[in-house]
Amino acid sequence: MDSLRSGAVRSLECELLQAANVSFAYKRHLVLREVSFDLAPGGVLGILGPNGSGKTTLLRLLGGLLRPTAGRIALDGCDLGNIAKATLAQRMAMVPQETHLAFDYSVLEIALMGRYPHLRSFEVEGPEDIELARAALAETDTAMLEQRAFMTLSGGEKQRVVIASALAQFGRRVADSGHRPVEVLLLDEPTASLDLGYQLDVASTLRRLNRDRSTSMVISTHDLNFAASVCDRVVLLRQGRVLAAGPIRDVLRPDTVRALYDVEATVEQHAMTGHMTVVPWARRATTAPNTHEER
């Protein structure tokens, strides 16, 4: 297993988002152990691993929702703990795996929720906020849904609307000047519970945002084929430890898939799409079950 660590972490200098020797524990339960990696401006990084590997916890740490027990997370070289929340909200936005609402909001209202970090106490959204929210809906191909009740949407439509809300939080349009600070989108299992068609829609939306807006992304997922279709680098996480990290074409191999999921798999480049594909064909026998309940 230690051989998989070789060359796993690039230099942390001049990177956009950095995790250096990050550990985290819920009370006495250690969930992450000395995790290190980096995200370059305009990069799409996949955090891959089985259920319970610590992916969601790591994403919350990257978004500043949790603080490391040990180690450091930095944005443009500045520790997240030293960045004002309003400033951080203009640079980073989280797309959760599921969105639970107390009321049945419209699609436009959901997109406008991304503007909340920019409003003063008791301030309501103005014309510019509405314009930004509508622009974000247009960028995710959901503008035609703005008057629909969010709860009436399909799973794939909901996910794209929530992504639009995150874009509205950044506060710029796709045509705006590229001189603004690079934005980071954090997505937790963005295709969970979606059928194949909606998975393709979400993947297409993310690729377009990365291409047209230069949006940097960190995507937590256990779906290796989805990650291969959108990510340029990956971190393989199991039981809170990094097994390997680097360019996806270097890291995604039969031996690393075996170490990550205890399955035998074929990994090859797809002739039509050009990206790597993983075809699992047998479960590998393990000596003991995984009893960890990490998140």
Known CATH architecture? 3-Layer(aba) Sandwich
Extended strand count: 12
CATH class membership = Alpha Beta
Structural class designation: alpha/beta
The total tally of domains equals 1
Q: Could you tell me how far the N terminus lies from the C terminus, measured between alpha carbons in angstroms?
A: 22 Å
Question: Which helices and strands, and how do they pair?
Answer:
Layout: E1 17-26, E2 29-39, E3 44-48, H1 55-62, E4 70-75, E5 78-79, H2 85-91, E6 92-95, H3 107-112, H4 127-139, H5 155-170, E7 184-188, H6 196-213, E8 216-221, H7 224-230, E9 233-238, E10 241-247, H8 248-251, H9 254-261, E11 263-269, E12 276-283
Parallel strand pairs: 3-8, 3-9, 6-7, 7-8
Antiparallel strand pairs: 1-2, 1-4, 4-5, 9-10, 11-12
Describe this structure in words.
By secondary structure, the chain is α/β, with parallel strands linked by helices. The chain has a single domain, classed as P-loop containing nucleotide triphosphate hydrolases (Rossmann fold, 3-Layer(aba) Sandwich), CATH 3.40.50. 29% of the residues lie in helices and 26% in strands. The chain is built from nine helices and twelve strands. It has a six-stranded mixed beta sheet with strand order 6-7-8-3-9-10, sandwiched between helices. It has a four-stranded antiparallel beta sheet with strand order 2-1-4-5, with helices on one face. A two-stranded antiparallel ribbon has the order 11-12. The two termini are 22 Å apart.
